[in-house]
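Hello,

Our lab assistant flagged a job as stuck in the queue for most of the afternoon. It eventually completed. Since we weren't sure the result was trustworthy after the delay, we are filing this so someone can double-check. Below is the sequence as submitted and the structure that was eventually returned. Let us know if re-running is recommended.
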Amino acid sequence: MSSDFVFTVIYFLISICLIYPPTEFITAGVTIPNIFSFLLGNEHQNFIGYHINKSCLYLIFYSVLPIGYLILSFFLGFNNVITDLSLSIPLLPSCFFTFAVILPIISVMEAWKWTTDRCERHPIVLNLTKFCNNNVNWKSVATNIDMEFRSIEKICLQTSAVVTVIVTENWIIKVSPLTMNIVHQSDASLVVKEADTFDLSPDNTTVQYLNIEVKSERQGVDPFIIRINASDFRDLKDKVARSIRILPNVKFHQTVVEKFVDVFNETIKLNPRYETSEISEQCNGCMQAQPNVKLQKLCEESPEAENKCTNCYCRPMWCSDCMAKWFASRQEADRVNTWLSSKCTCPMCRATFCMLDVCPLSGVQEGE
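-- returned structure --
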């Protein structure tokens, strides 16, 4: 294997890793935004301006990769690959050279067009102008997005190495290397179109990705697809103002804990109900649902039994879902088949209880 071929392969692999960086490159900070951070500014302070600069940088960087190969191979003396190609396919080297020279010129001209006239023709700005009302210019929309991005009340989902989905109080944003898809939550509709499930070996874990179509009722706004891990769906659902419609053919994959929560809720429905007026306003676990279960010793055990269930004197402070997750977290992960017959301790007073001791509250519906 010649050194010229090795150089070509290494250059190709490094280029791919810079275009679509793997986890190792991201962890080491070897990404285009990190390398050229001095040109981009601060994303937290100027979100829209940062991504306008970044898109121009990506465009130019992609275009110089072919000519970069030619320049490096010339100065490092790795010319045999090109020479061999010229012998077998005479026109290929000249075509590649022409392409390598013309591509950066076209990209620079395109980037210049994007940034002239106060970036009025940039793809991101063109998307922003679709949300201008009452003679408001795109900079006002950009300022609003910048302010919401600086807020801690947002979620950022890294859906791939180069694509990020950001949901703020009023905006749903999909950031890609060269552009940005934007939808205002007030006129957005989200539909889960497809679910892709992958079985990963050797640990037999399963990963599911959801393809969600985001549409806007506003005229001229193009729909787009966001692809997220199913584990991030709840975070997205909680942050989006409108409900997310799920097509009937989409089947969600459930983790072991999620399956246990369903079984837990079905099992405790058979237990006696507990009547009380002392209920916390919010569940101590999720801080969203209303508490709907109370621990009360009802099981019968033999005097010789070890780790006996004990009375819990805490008032109802947990919803059934959070109690189920707490119960599952205290069990042995490799003995799932014993979870229902196992015991746990109260999250507050550490009183021991089993499934028979979890009583639904009378007059409180599940999920409230």
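-- support follow-up --
The delay was a queue issue, not a problem with the job. The result is valid. The two ends are 68 Å apart (CA to CA). Residues 256-360 form one domain.
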